[in-house]
Amino acid sequence: MWVDWFLALRILRDGRMQTLLITSGVAAGVTVMVFLSSLMTGLEVSLLKKTLGTQAHVVVRPAEERARPLLGDEVVRRVEATAQRTRSIDGWQQLLAALDAEAGVAAASPSATAPVFAVRGNGTEAVVVKGVVLDRFARVIDLTDHMVAGALTVADRGAVIGVGLAGKLGVTVGDRLRLQAADGTSELFDVRGLFDLGNKAANDVWVLVALRDAQTLLALTGGVSSIELRMPELFAAEALAARLRGRTGLEVESWMAANTELLTALRSQASSSAVIQAFVILAVAIGIASVLVVSVIQRSREIGILRAMGMSRGRITRVFLLQGGLVGVGGSLLGSGLGAALAVGFGKAVTDASGGPLLPIVLDAQLFLTASAVATATGLLAALLPARRAARLDPATAIRNA
Amino acid sequence: MPDPVLELRGVIKEFGEAVVTRVLHGIDMRIERGEFVAMIGPSGSGKSTVLNLVGLLDRPTAGEVWVLGERSDRLDDDGLTQLRARSLGFVFQFHHLIGALSAGENVMMALAADQPRLTREMRRRSLEALTEVGLADRVDEDPRRLSGGQQQRVAIARALVRRPPLVLADEPTGNLDTRTAEEIFTLMRRVNKEQGIAFLIVTHDPRIAERCDRVVEIVDGRIVDGRIVDGPPR
């Protein structure tokens, strides 16, 4: 066995209480880190998933219409803003081709979207009809995994609607539904499938139909009102939106701009959690350092003896550094287990009304590795001061005075 | 000319920066291989300072300290540490065993001090050294649970296990009762005779001093008496 390890382990074993104390300190720190991080990550993932499950990462729309009064010398007091109609993006097919080729765009889905009425017997509901090319749309919004009944198809005047709307209108797969546009045009659709996106707004309001059918219903012949994009890199959305805005002159909105509050909340959560963790690490480091300093003082005579017997300063330094490192590793193992147990327990205890977990607990190996690396490095760094102090002890004085 | 394990030439030692106190005023001393030497003198005479210099735990202000033909002031800290491991064994008044280690491990540390790994051979030699001092059955004992005499014997085993040419003993019987002190002295004398290991023993006890080969007396930082004691007390 290596002598350095042997001595470090023996000293740790001899100072059982001290070792137990600082190891628990490290374990507590690692527990906090693991628990907090998994909670934060879970929260972020869940919030983003809820928000972006039913929302494209970037939406391209035609530029807003503005009233441009044709005036001579008159002074107007007020220019009324025009009500926005459903209009088509000019040259959307070329734009779509360009977007398909654009780097950082995973999928692009053109849609003709507008508010209409859904009528079934006596029931009338205000809904949003989304005319889409289904295989494109399903790549932007993950529908495939959220179908609860029927099939995901809109061929032959089919419609796919949310479970909320189906409940309100009392329709199910195989029933018929009339959609009525603002100008009175109406069309009949067969309900082919029901989806549950876990978002009330989408479940209660969306009616997915074929693009061509929506174009007819909305009098948008050959046009689309928006192109929705999905990106592999979530947080690059705003940059892409700005780029497209500049290039096309169209209105381009990223999810980040549409959800500034969510984004601010996520960021402040992340930074407050980072601050908490930094202070926890600091407290743990101070704890380790102070216990080891006491240990060095208590053992200064013994250290003097070891030096007199021919142990080098380097070896004494290593023996105490190792103690810090070992405490760090031990505390990491303990704390990882505790933190994981706490996170899982929390995930189980905190449930929503239906008994499902309110927060998905995210425990990835990366988190444990990071927490353990931080704890071990903290142990080593914290031991640096005591180790140097031990190595600097003058053996003659240490033996005589202690 | 006999072969000295230790030689001091005109060693001067001063302490303090602002107020300089000269503790040793030119000490000349030789210890030959296998000699058994006592060093006596009143408290504050400089005995401990000499022992620290000889033990390579400190350096002289002026003069030369030669251990096994090497000059201590020409060595750096690591050099001193290595020379110490190679040539010197220490026995202290308060035995100074390491509480975190068992009796056997305490002895073994003297062998392992300058080695990277612990070996079976070290274990064997430690047990052998403990057997020599009559403590083979206490090899795994916590040294804090041993009696004073037993602790001092472990300390002697630790000092001897490397078979150093010179053992330095600082009041080795200082806190032992008469009977135990006698046992310890006999043990050291036996090792000296059987293995030819030289001893330098700092002591207050005249009964011990007069049974050594030679007594060096230090008073006020000077050697006053280098008389040789032959055989039994006068």
Q: Can you tell me about this structure?
A:
The complex is a heterodimer of chains A (402) and B (234). Chain A is of the alpha+beta class and 402 residues long. Chain A folds into two domains: 2-51 and 262-401, no CATH class; 92-230, no CATH class. Helix content of chain A is 55%, strand content 16%. Chain A has helices at residues 3-14, 16-52, 92-101, 134-140, 163-169, 200-205, 211-218, 237-248, 255-258, 260-298, 300-308, 313-349, 365-392, 395-401, and strands spanning 58-61, 107-120, 123-132, 147-150, 158-162, 176-180, 186-195, 206-210, 226-230, 251-254. In chain A, a hairpin with a 5-residue loop joins strand 6 and strand 7 (186-195). In chain A, helix 1 packs across helix 12 (313-349) and helix 2 (16-52) packs antiparallel against helix 13. Chain A is elongated and about 105 Å long. With 234 residues, chain B is α/β, with parallel strands linked by helices. Chain B has one domain (36-59, 75-225): Rossmann fold (3-Layer(aba) Sandwich), CATH 3.40.50.300. Helices cover 33% and strands 26% of the residues of chain B. Chain B contains seven helices and ten strands. In chain B, strands 6-7-8-3-9-10 form a six-stranded mixed β-sheet, with helices on both faces. In chain B, helix 6 links the parallel strand 7 and strand 8. In chain B, helix 3 runs parallel beside helix 5 (148-160) and helix 4 crosses helix 5 (148-160). The longest helix of chain B is centred in the C-terminal third of the chain and has 18 residues, at 178-195. The radius of gyration of chain B is 18 Å and the shape is globular. Chain B starts with a strand and ends in a 9-residue tail after the last strand. Residues 228-234 of chain B have low confidence and may be disordered. Classes of the chains: A alpha+beta (402), B alpha/beta (234).
